[in-house]
């Protein structure tokens, strides 16, 4: 799932679904989240589904009809660029990983290296992309499996994958020495660009509030 959408839109677990429709209902909400539609349109379809499911006459027929509506919403926004959204998603994650974790936390806070220089190269880029993939898979795992051995197995595999990516990236050659301050400032600019792109894709910021 898109990282911006995961944190910006209401949490899937926050929706009140009748007990008999909770499992399938959440699966359908998850499918709606992956349609690339603006959040406002997603919420409209989800809200209508939840309203209908709480009616006295509601039954499995409503759930059986929903995949067609989800497919129609997805088709409506089929022209939207999936690659563009992934690129924008990476523009949000990369500056957080590089600017906050690799630079501010490790270089500035841990090593007390604010005014000096820090190595930056293919190792940093590979670790960032690897961590991005792991985080995306982690969200998929958490949303698909609410509990049980499948969730724990998925978390274990992803943890091993993360450690492997971090370790293997250290063998990559090529480094430059740059100022930590410049890396933090550049990361802030890139994050703002990624945020603005997501506002364009999913609608004006501030309209939808994440329900905790």
Q: What's the short version?
A:
Helices cover 69% and strands 4% of the residues. It has 212 residues and is mainly alpha-helical.
Q: In order across it, which strands form the biggest sheet?
A: 1-2
- Element pattern in H and E: HHHHHEHHEH
Number of strands: 2
Compute the gyration radius: what is it? 20 Å
Q: Helical residue percent?
A: 55-70%
**How is the main sheet built?**
2 strands, antiparallel
Shape annotation = elongated
Q: What portion of residues belong to β-strands? A: under 5%
Unreliable residue runs = 205-212
Distinct helical segment count: 8
The average pLDDT score comes to 87
Which class do the helix and strand fractions yield? mainly alpha
Q: First CA to last CA: what distance? A: 18 Å
What does this structure look like?
The protein is 69% helix and 4% strand. By secondary structure, the chain is mainly α. A two-stranded antiparallel ribbon has the order 1-2. The longest helix has 29 residues, at 82-110. The chain starts with a helix and ends in a 10-residue tail after the last helix.
SSE layout:
Layout: H1 3-8, H2 22-33, H3 39-53, H4 60-76, H5 82-110, E1 118-121, H6 122-144, H7 149-169, E2 175-178, H8 180-202
Antiparallel strand pairs: 1-2
Fill in the keyword field for this structure.
212 residues, mainly alpha, two-stranded antiparallel ribbon, 8 helices, 4% strand, elongated, disordered C terminus
């Amino acid at each position: 799932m898109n990282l911006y959408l995961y944190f910006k839109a209401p949490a899937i677990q926050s929706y009140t679904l009748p007990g008999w429709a909770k499992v399938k209902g959440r699966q359908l909400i998850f499918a709606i989240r992956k349609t690339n539609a603006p959040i406002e349109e997603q919420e409209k379809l989800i809200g209508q589904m939840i309203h209908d499911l709480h009616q006295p006459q509601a039954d499995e027929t409503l759930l059986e009809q929903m995949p067609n509506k989800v497919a129609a919403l997805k088709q409506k926004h089929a022209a939207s660029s999936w690659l563009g959204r992934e690129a924008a998603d990476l523009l949000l994650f990369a500056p957080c990983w590089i600017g906050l974790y690799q630079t501010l936390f490790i270089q500035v806070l841990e090593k007390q290296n604010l005014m000096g220089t820090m190595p930056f190269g293919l190792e940093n880029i590979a670790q960032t992309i690897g961590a991005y993939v792991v985080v995306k898979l982690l969200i998929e795992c958490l949303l698909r499996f609410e509990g049980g051995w499948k969730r724990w197995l998925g978390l274990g595999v992803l943890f091993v994958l993360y450690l492997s990516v971090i370790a293997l990236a250290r063998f990559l050659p090529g480094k430059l020495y740059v100022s930590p301050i410049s890396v933090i400032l550049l990361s802030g600019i890139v994050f703002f660009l990624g945020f603005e792109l997501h506002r364009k894709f999913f609608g004006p910021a501030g309209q939808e509030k994440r329900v905790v």
